[in-house]
Write a structure and sequence with these properties.
The N and C termini lie far apart (53 Å). With 190 residues, the protein is of the alpha+beta class. The strands form 2 sheets. Strands 1-2-8-11-10-9 form a 6-stranded antiparallel sheet, with helices on one face. It has a 5-stranded antiparallel sheet with strand order 4-5-6-3-7. The protein is 18% helix and 36% strand. The protein has one domain: Probable tRNA modification gtpase trme, domain 1 (Gyrase A, domain 2). The mean pLDDT is 91.
Length: 190
Amino acid sequence: MANITLEAQTPLRGFSEKFGSTNLSENLDTSIFSIGLALDTSKALESISSVLGATWPNTGSSTLNDNGTIRLLGLQADQIFVLMQAAPSADGQAAPLPALDESAYVTDQSDSWASLRIDGPNARRALERICPIDLHPSMFSVGAVTRTSMEHLAVIILREDEDSYVLLSPASSALSFLHAIETSLHNIAS
C-alpha cells in the first residue's frame, strides 16, 4: 500500500502579485462563518454583540469589533457573514468562532469560499471593468458590502478601506475568478 501524505491547500494556493502599485492577494488568515438568527432574535443579537464585540450590521453594510479582527457583513435581514482574522491550524482547519448563544446558528464557510484582497490606486478601476454595480465612493462607501457577479461568477464584495476591497467567491470557481481579476488588472495597465 502506498504511503501518501495529504496537505491542505487554499483555493488560490497563496496567490500574491503586484500589478504596478496595486496588490492582489489571497487572504490566508481569514476564517469565514455564516450566522443566521433563530427564533429569539433579541437574545441572538445580544449574544453576537457581547461575544463578538460588534453589532449586527444593516443589510449592505458591515461592522467591526474594537480591535478590528472580526467584521460582520450584512448580507440579508436574518443572515450575516463573519470574517475573522485568525491563522488556520496546521491541518488547514479554520480558527473556531467563539461560542454563541443557541438562539443563533453558525456554519463554518471557510473552505467554501476563496478570499481575495485587492488594494491600491487602481483597485476600483480594475473592478469597475467587470463589476455591474457602481463602486464610486458616493455610492459604495467604506464598509459597504453586497452580493453581485463578476464575469458570470458569484461574488461578495466588501469595500474595506479607501482603495481596498475584499472579494469572496465560491472555492469551486476560485481560479476562474482570479483569472478575471488578473485580466482586468492587466487591461488597465496597458
